[in-house]
UniProtKB/TrEMBL annotation:
SUPFAM superfamilies named in the record: Homeodomain-like
UniProt cross-references to InterPro entries, sorted A to Z: Homeodomain-like_sf (IPR009057), Myb_dom (IPR017930), Myb_TF_plants (IPR015495), SANT/Myb (IPR001005)
A GO cellular component entry from the record: nucleus
Domain of life: Eukaryota
Name of protein: Transcription factor MYB8-like
Entry GO MF terms: DNA binding
Gene3D superfamilies per UniProt: Homeodomain-like
Domain HTH myb-type: 20-72, 73-127
Localization per record: Nucleus
Domain Myb-like, first and last residues per copy: 20-72, 73-123
Keyword vocabulary terms for this entry: DNA-binding, Nucleus
Chief place of localization: nucleus
Length: 255
DNA sequence: AACTTGACCAACCGCCAACAC
DNA sequence: TGTGTTGGCGGTTGGTCAAGT
């Protein structure tokens, strides 16, 4: 499914330079790596601000930290992602968006930077963005709504599949499928979804539902809003009719 | 052979939350 | 409570290589 190999082991980095403050930037030399590694192994990865001075490096602390975390730290894998890793990254990206540190935490030996680079270089182009389906039609409410999806599902499975094909939520969307079995009956009613751009950086999804479920969502103190942490999607009860916040990291699922 | 273009990835930049004082 | 510092994070940049022209 995925083709992902390091083309070579050549170093492609910025040329070392020393800025006006005497701080070195750019590619790390072998000697610098050895100094940093020796220091960390002896004293541990703490007080990054002091590390350059104590380790005898002309680097800023931030640069040392980055070098250690992304390159020198023991246990790191380099390149050659397995199909399992690729599929896991895609799956996690669907779930978490560009939260690379969260994704990398579930991939032993991989750093957030490496996962991010790998996604941008290899995987992003392999995951086709979903487009709006022909079932979209405009709705009267909420009035700000630009688009609204109207769909009648018989079961949660139907609904999950609909969401997968329409919104690109492939993982059968725990937002919907984790409901209690008894709540499946609710899917006989109409579910409306809308999408709206509030500004360039923020996409919002609007949803309302005339027989709103109670689990597994966390209700607010008025029991009018329900929150799904998995997707950063907040859904509102029919009394409030619409409005939901949306993690902007998921924009690329929808745009 | 020379040049251009795109892919790749290490490293940097800027923002922000947590923490210390 | 306000301010400064630090570490963490995600986005972006810049340099090199390989392939194409």
């Amino acid at each position: 499914m995925f083709v992902s190999q390091r083309r070579n082991n050549n170093i492609m980095v910025r040329a070392p330079v020393v800025d006006k403050d005497g701080v070195k930037r750019g590619a790390w030399s072998l000697e610098e790596d050895q100094k940093l590694r020796a220091y960390i192994e002896k004293y541990g990865p703490w007080k990054w601000r002091e590390v350059p001075t104590l380790a005898g490096l002309m680097r800023c602390g931030k640069s040392c930290r980055l070098r250690w975390l992304n390159y020198l730290r023991p246990g790191l894998k380099r390149g050659n992602y397995t199909n399992e890793e690729n599929e896991l990254i895609c799956k996690l990206h669907q779930k978490y968006g560009n939260r690379w540190s969260t994704i990398a935490a579930k991939l032993p030996g991989r750093t957030d930077n490496e996962v991010k680079n790998h996604w941008n270089a290899h995987l992003r182009k392999q995951v086709k963005p979903k487009t709006e389906s022909s079932t979209i039609k405009h709705e009267g409410k909420p009035k700000e709504l630009r688009l609204s999806h109207v769909y009648e599902a018989k079961t949660s499975k139907d609904f999950a599949e609909y969401c997968s094909s329409t919104f690109g939520i492939v993982e059968s969307s725990s937002c919907f499928s984790q409901q209690t079995s008894s709540s499946d009956d609710n899917f006989g009613t109409e579910i409306n979804w809308g999408m709206e751009d509030y500004n360039i950086d923020q996409l919002q999804i609007c949803g309302y539902y005339d027989n709103f479920w109670t689990e597994p969502y966390v209700w607010d103190h008025n029991q009018t809003n329900a929150f799904s942490e998995d997707y950063g999607i907040r859904m509102f009860s029919p009394q409030q009719q619409y409005e939901t916040t949306y993690d902007h990291n998921y924009c690329d699922l929808f745009c």
